[in-house]
C-alpha cells in the first residue's frame, strides 16, 4: 500500500489527524470497533471523539496537556487515543498492571492534567491522587451521566465519560492547531537506573509507525482484527494502524484461547495480534477447527520456538509475521510469512531464531562502542535510524545523549549479529527481562529487595521459562534466615505482579569481576545448574 493510496487528495500523510479523518470519511458506515459492551462505526467513532475533544476543552484542557489512560482493553481506549491525537493533547497510556504507587509516579513525572480510568483503577489509584500536583480532571469510563463535574477531597474534579460527552455535544469546540513536531505521545520505560523515563514521539513519528505497520503486516480494509494484547502497549500501535487502514477491530478484554478461535470461526477474524505464549495456547485447541478466514498471526516480544512455528504452519498455513521493535525506535525488523517456511523434516533454518530483516523505512546497524559497524557474524549493539524513532526523553537530555549516535542513529541496548540479511538478537546490554511480553528492569526489583530485612546483596536476572519466555529470578546474599514468602509479599506490596521474582536462590557472595561488577552471566550459569538438579 502506498502513501498516496492512504492519503488521497494530496493531504499531508505526516499529519495524524488527517489520517484519522480520512478513515472516518472513507469508511464511515463500516464497523470500526467491537468490544464486550458496544460497537462503533467509523462515523460513530468520529462523533464520539469529537464530543470527547470538546468536553475536555470545555473542562479547561488545552493542546499540549498530558492525558493519561489507565484501563483494561475496551473500545474507549481507542477512542481516548484518537481524542488525544485530534485534540492536540499528549497521549500517555499507562500499564494497568503497575502498582498504583508506580502509576502515580509516572503521572507526576508526566505532569498529567487528565486521568481516564476504568472502575478498577478509579478505586485503586484514589489514595494517590492528592500527590499528583498537576492533575485537574479524572474521567470515569464506567460511570453513568450524573451531572456536572464534582471536586472531591483530593482536590481533583471527577466526571463520568457520558457526562463529559454530553457537555462536549452542548459546547462544540475546535482544538487549537499544534506544531507538527510538538510532543504527541509519551511512553514510560524504566531503564537501568530504575527511574522511569518518558519517551517522546511526535505526530509525524507516530504516522510513520502507522505506515510501517500497515506495510509489514499487509493490512487490508477488509481485515477483521482480534486484539487481546494490552492497548497501552503494542496493541495500541496495531489498533491505530488497522483503524486508519479501515479494518474492523475486535477488542478483547483479556486473552482467552477459545475466544480467539471463536473470533476466527464465527466472527471472521482475519488477523490475530498475539505474543508467542498465546500462539501456543491456540495451537493446543485449533485442530479440526474452521480457520480458513485467518490470514495473519502477528506476534512479537520474542522469537517463537521452532516446534511452535511447525505446529502453527501445520494448523493455519503461512500466516506468521514477527515484528521486533522498541518504545524508543518503533518497529525495527520483521520476519515475514515466507521467512517462517521451510521443508518440514529438514533442519530448521537459522533465520527462525532471528527477528527478521529491517522494515522498509528503517536502517539498522550492529555497532561497536565507537559507533563503527561490526563484521557480519560478530556481535554488536543494534542501532536504528528511521522517521519513527523518538525525539528524546522527557526532561532527560543526558539519557538521550547516551543513546544518540551521530547521523540520527539511536542505540537500542540490544546486542545482535547479522547473518544473510537477518538480524539475530543474542542478549540485552541493559539486562532487561521480558516476561509475558512485559519489560522488567532488574534494578527496580533489586532496589525493593535491598529494602527487605536481612538482604545484604541482590542480583535480579531473567531465566528461561516455557510459558512466559523469561521469569524473574532473584539471587540474594543474606545476613541470616531468608523467608521467600515474606520477600514475595514485600515485593507484591511495592511492584506490579509481573515484576515479582518467581525464583529465589541464596549465595554467600555474588560473583564479581575485577572491576567489582556483578557477573550476571556466571549467575545465570549457576542458576541453570541448580535448576537442572531439581
| Separation, N- and C-terminal Cα atoms | 53 Å
What spatial order of strands do you see in the largest sheet?
2-1-12-11-13-14-15-16-17
Tell me about the biggest sheet? 9 strands, mixed
**Assigned CATH superfamily of the largest domain:** ANL, N-terminal domain
Query: CATH topology of the largest domain, which one?
Result: Rossmann fold
Structural class: alpha/beta
Described by its quaternary structure, the protein is single chain
| C-alpha-based Rg, rounded | 23 Å
Protein model, in words:
- The chain is of the alpha/beta class.
- The protein has three domains: 3-202, 3-Layer(aba) Sandwich (Rossmann fold); 205-428, Rossmann fold (3-Layer(aba) Sandwich), CATH 3.40.50; 434-533, GMP Synthetase, Chain A, domain 3 (2-Layer Sandwich).
- It contains 16 helices and 28 strands.
- α9 (234-245) links the parallel β11 and β12.
- α2 (16-26) packs across α3 and α11 packs across α12 (306-316).
- It is globular.
Write the layout of secondary structure elements.
Blueprint: H1 3-6, H2 16-26, E1 31-34, E2 39-41, H3 42-58, E3 66-70, H4 75-87, E4 90-93, H5 100-110, E5 112-117, H6 119-125, E6 137-140, E7 150-151, E8 157-160, H7 161-170, E9 183-189, E10 197-202, H8 203-217, E11 224-227, H9 234-245, E12 248-251, H10 257-267, E13 271-274, H11 276-283, E14 296-299, H12 306-316, E15 320-326, E16 330-335, E17 357-358, E18 362-367, E19 380-386, E20 392-393, H13 397-403, E21 404-405, E22 409-419, E23 422-428, E24 433-435, E25 438-440, H14 442-450, E26 455-465, E27 469-478, H15 484-492, E28 503-506, H16 520-533
Parallel strand pairs: 1-12, 3-4, 3-5, 4-9, 5-6, 6-8, 11-12, 11-13, 13-14, 14-15, 27-28
Antiparallel strand pairs: 1-2, 7-8, 9-10, 10-20, 15-16, 16-17, 18-19, 19-22, 21-22, 22-23, 24-25, 26-27
